[in-house]
Prior knowledge:
45% of the residues lie in helices and 19% in strands.
Amino acid sequence: MFKKTILKNGLRIITFPMENTRALTLLLLVATGSKYEKKEISGLSHLLEHMAFKGTKKRPQTIDIAKELDRVGGIYNAFTGKELMGFWVKVDASHFDLAADVLSDMIFNSLFKEEEIKKEKKVIFEEINMMKDNPSKYVLDLWEKLLYGDQPAGWLISGEKETVKKISRKNILDYFKKQFIPTNIIISLAGNFKEKEAILKIKRFFGKFKKIKPFSKKPTKELQNSPQVLLNFKETDQTHLCLGVRTFDLFQPEKYPLAVMSVILGGIMSSRLFIKVREKRSLAYYIRTLPEHYTDTGFLVTHTGIDNKRIEEAIKIILNEYNNLKTKKVSKRELKKAKENIKGRLYLNLETSDVWATFLGSQEILKRKISTPEQECKKIDKVSQIDILKVAKDIFQPQKLNLSLIGPFKNKNKFKKLLRI
Length: 421
């Protein structure tokens, strides 16, 4: 069972001891990300994440950080999202002190050298190039750009080259000082450790955060009264698309029927769309349907890569399956299969310390409330045929449809005419 400890300065610690493992994962999560940025410095959070690995007072060079964890076989990385950032180290449990020392050093003592910032910007430019050269991934970024437009929710997490170029050392320091504060941070620890001893160590390594008030993100605005299309012309051998609808945020109970629905549509190899699009018609190599929930928005999207000559056929099939869900109840057999799949994957994923640290910590940082796997599974079990029908009727409306597409096409209206349900 996990334990939540709150220090006097407001820092929250989540601990989850695990038997039968030699591993230990120490994860630091920050309630910030690209949604907290201004347009002129979009990409700041992502650049800051990179810079945390570029030298500290105690370990002045990048190699000084890497070699200490490498010599014990440690795995380490960081990530930036739209609403949270994370820095983590996974080691053999005997190296807990080393993991905490290195991670806390990166957080409290990063140098943010001007010359390193200039160098790392070039690395990020190549990351942006790589992303935009990969249409199967970039189309997902275009999907959110289509949904949310010119506001933080619609911008690239990496920022654009033009905005990253403008970010100064002062911008990074000001953002860091304002957002990396105790009430905005979770330390999530999972693996092989003694709980009381571990909490004392975390206090020692991470207890010096200064308590000030962070700045908050602006609410995301959602305005849509007709189907929308975002077309990105590119000479590709395959068209990559995202087709879906606006749905529910992280706090709405309808997310559970939506989770079951997404599995039925395209979450598994025996799902409706996988069978009809790939197996029966050989239109695609990959097709999947997934839900996404932020603290103030959400969506359901089908993501696939299609033969350029048969793109209209694929779109019609996807829309037809959307329509079927709002006009016909799913069978009890299909409903049960989807539920068991969700529960099975949840438990199978939770076999390692890093997944447990993320599962618990991300709930606390985003919702300030943690549900156990058992509690989550009970909510999935309660989903009925009527629940899915009701949610489908709500979300699968023509005015909520959106399509982002990368391929050798220039006529947006041709695709807009297809968006009927």
